[in-house]
Write a structure and sequence with these properties.
The protein is mainly alpha-helical and 189 residues long. It is built from eight helices and no strands. Belongs to the sigma-70 factor family. ECF subfamily.
């Protein structure tokens, strides 16, 4: 292995651990899963074709490790809906069910342009880390790890309606956080 891959692994490791901690609250387990993913990447470095970014390829390996871990440990799960983080969704709309002027989403820039901006993803990561852990877990399983709703519900022992409610709350909170941390600060795109 060349030194360029060694430095890439070292740079990527803290991000992989942060991502793992969204799914696995125990830091030791998260670090073990990251270590397993890095070992698998190292052992299969000759299979890396470069069709995806290197970081994306390693995240994909970790994603599979996390899904396997979640499936193995689904009996040790907890309930995920808490009224402590209830959002008054009705307050975002007027009596005709249109956006309230103060709650209306800000105009966002082109997603393609934003994707190219690593600053955006840093803000996104910070926003994810500030979500309640159960909300972040469900959102990451659905949107970042591409699990189907049915599988999420089965793994976490939650109802489909509960899952959709959690996802809705996560999206609202992420939208608000990203608007404050990125869009409203006038970040250049």
């Amino acid at each position: 292995m060349t030194s360029s891959y060694t430095s890439r692994f070292e740079t990527l490791r803290p991000k992989l651990i942060a991502f793992s901690l969204l799914q696995v609250q125990d830091r030791e387990h998260a670090e073990d899963l990251v270590q397993d993913a890095l070992i698998a990447a190292l052992e299969n470095i000759d299979k890396y074709e470069g069709s995806a970014q290197f970081d994306t390829w390693v995240y994909g390996i970790l994603r599979h490790k996390l899904i396997d871990y979640i499936r193995r440990t689904k009996r040790e799960r907890e309930r995920f809906v808490s009224d402590d983080h209830e959002i008054d969704i009705d307050s975002l709309f007027d009596n005709r069910e249109h956006w309230d002027a103060d709650s209306k989403p800000e105009q966002w820039k082109s997603p393609e342009d934003l994707h190219l901006r690593s600053d955006f993803w840093e803000v996104f990561d910070l926003c994810m880390l500030h979500l309640p852990s159960n909300t972040a877990r469900v959102f990451a399983l659905r949107e970042l790890m591409d699990l189907e709703t049915e599988e999420i519900c089965e793994c976490l022992d939650i109802s489909e309606q509960n899952c959709w409610t959690i996802l809705h709350r996560a999206r609202l909170k992420l939208r608000g956080c990203i608007e404050k941390g990125w869009f409203l600060k006038g970040s250049p795109v």
